[in-house]
Amino acid sequence: MDKAAVGRKVPDFSLPATGGQTIALSDYSGRNVVIYFYPKDSTPGCTTEGQDFRDRIGQFRRRNTAILGISRDSVRSHENFKAR
Which residues of 57-81 are buried (b: 16+ CB within 10 A; e: fewer)? Predict the structure, then answer.
């Protein structure tokens, strides 16, 4: 498999998400997508990063861009982090 790179299309994938959903990259067809990876829910670094994206969500929406955060934590851990 080729390495991912900015501006290069990546193969479709799907992952379980909060809210009982499964999200596929193809769900965002026709939009820009920022995928950021973080090591663990509820840590200072991931919280700051998530807040930075949240605070700028209007700018991303105006540019037809979705933001997806991915970590190795369980969906339950994500739900707890999201609730805080």
Answer: eeebeeeeebbbbebebeeeebeeb
φ/ψ region of 19 (left if φ > 0, alpha if ψ in -120 to 50, else beta) reads left
Does 46 participate in catalysis according to the annotation?
yes
Number of domains in the chain: 1
Residues 3, 19, 46, 66: which is the catalytic one? 46
pLDDT per position as a tens digit, 19-78:
899 999 999 999 999 998 888 888 777 788 888 999 999 999 999 999 998 888 888 887
Residue 58 corresponds to which tokens in the numbers above? 């209007």
For 71, the domain range is: 21-83
Please report, for the domain that includes residue 25, its CATH number. Answer: 3.40.30.10
| pTM, 2 dp | 0.77
Q: Are 16 and 22 in contact (CB under 8 A)?
A: yes
